[in-house]
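Reposting from the mailing list since nobody answered there.

I have sequence plus structure tokens for a pair of proteins and want to know whether others read the tokens the same way I do. The first protein:
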Amino acid sequence: MHDYFKSILEFRLPDDLDDVPSNRSGVYVLCLRFPSDYELGLTSGHSDLERVVAVIRRYVMRMSKVIGFQEMYGTVRIGGVADHLCQESKASIVRKDLSPTSDLFESYVIQNAGDRSKVQELAMALRLGVSAAPPLYVGMTAKQSFQARIGQHFRGETDINERLSCFGLDWSMLSVKCISIENTSSDNVRQLEKIIQALLKPKLSKQ
């Protein structure tokens, strides 16, 4: 059976919140979204390229921050084979993006300053790359509708907004995608959520 609710649905908040299904539940993800040419102001023949580049730069830097972030927890063992001579300490490591994203971006901008077509190509390439990035958050709902649960996130009734703000992100930089899972148990939906989480390691899902 294939119908509207068996497809992957995509929404942007707050504009589409009322369109999020209010009678369906299942699995949903929050993904990074790069702005359209219209949002960037590139559809006009008289675009302010300096402003456009500034907007793109802000998106790139914020997205780089969250994509390159990783927290690691473990135990450090000091000593050799003999257990009674060893010491163990709990440790946590935060990995941050050390890639030359900023340098590469600025180099491209300097080389192509004032060239509208090159700025548009930059936006297109970034939009393609961001669309392929893993989701930032994977969630599920079984007893609530998509609209109820996602609305809770958006209104700050969960801690998602706090996690987003840590990276300078907001809902305008996200898209919400969901697929309806009907006629099944909450445990089954939870298993599907965990499979996606285990595969894609979403940065904003609690580790």
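The second protein, same order (residues first, tokens after):
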Amino acid sequence: MAYEFHNSKVDGTPDQEIVSGQIGSLFTSLTSQERLTGDQEFSKVWITADSDLTSLIGLSNPTDYTSTVFVSASESDVEGDLTGSELRYGAQKVATVGSNYIDVEDNVDYTLMRSADVIIIAGATYTIDTVVDNTNGTHRVTTTTALASLPSVGDYVTSTFALTLITATPKPFWREEKVTAGAAWYGEYATAEILIAD
């Protein structure tokens, strides 16, 4: 399976190809002012596959900043059309582990895991049964089936959304980076890696 990614033009249509590992190909560098005052950046990404399939899209790990992916209401939308109510998907750090549950550290910006969402743990997919607030800075995530391979404390668990792809037809989703005011560093920074399961 081969995928190709493209950024968007101002009008929301596909633009230049995103090159893996190339600095600035998805988000511009973070300035000193953005570090001090905080910043929220969005990038519409187009994905193309070389065959028909449904892919699960998520993030393999967060950066030093909140990183999420989501799908918006319309394929023709631009940043100004986003409402803020879109369901975010991301990666959360494992705090403790059980046979069919994990406790993940809370994300203060968004709810990233919900009942019936599909998550990826150690390369395998699981459907979330329940998510319960432990009231200690973590949430307990139980799955509908037992975990075949247990993650380690400190690993990241990815929540995903499904995107139906048609051969050679670009489909969009959004990437977000949210920088908290007073972040420790600025300049060139890598964004979290997009994770795809097909």
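Reply #1 (J.P.):
I read it the same way you do. The mean pLDDT is 85.
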